């Protein structure tokens, strides 16, 4: 789960830039928050990201415990070009990790969360 400061902006990023689907969204008026679940398919078949918007909170301190989300992609270089064309922020260009062969890139979402993209041919092998 990621806490976001502007739910519409965050949904647009994950949907339009990372090409995820908005699976479901719900509001809790009593406790003043909205949840949105996005993923690459039905959540019964794969992982989803939960975005939480606490009404009136526009910014969060990420702290030093959270690192990043990792997503495997079939075409790392093509994915980065598509993200760039959609207005996404590539913070580490695609290429091999230092001292290894695994190809990765990093993207930043509108709230500053880091997302690592891993070439799927290497995704199950660990970094190296």
UniProtKB/TrEMBL annotation:
It holds the Pfam family Glyoxalase. Gene3D superfamilies: 2,3-Dihydroxybiphenyl 1,2-Dioxygenase, domain 1. It catalyses: (R)-S-lactoylglutathione = methylglyoxal + glutathione. GO terms for cellular component: cytoplasm. The keyword Nucleotide-binding does not apply. Zn(2+) binds at residues 50, 68, 116. InterPro entries: Glyas_Bleomycin-R_OHBP_Dase, Glyas_Fos-R_dOase_dom, Glyoxalase_1, Glyoxalase_1_CS, VOC_core. It is an enzyme of class 4 (lyase). Pathway: Secondary metabolite metabolism; methylglyoxal degradation; (R)-lactate from methylglyoxal: step 1/2. Keywords: Lyase, Metal-binding, Zinc. GO terms for biological process: methylglyoxal catabolic process to D-lactate via S-lactoyl-glutathione. The active site is at 116 (proton donor/acceptor). Residues 1-120 form the VOC domain. Its EC number is 4.4.1.5. GO terms for molecular function: lactoylglutathione lyase activity; metal ion binding. PANTHER family: LACTOYLGLUTATHIONE LYASE (PTHR46036). Belongs to the glyoxalase I family. This is lactoylglutathione lyase.
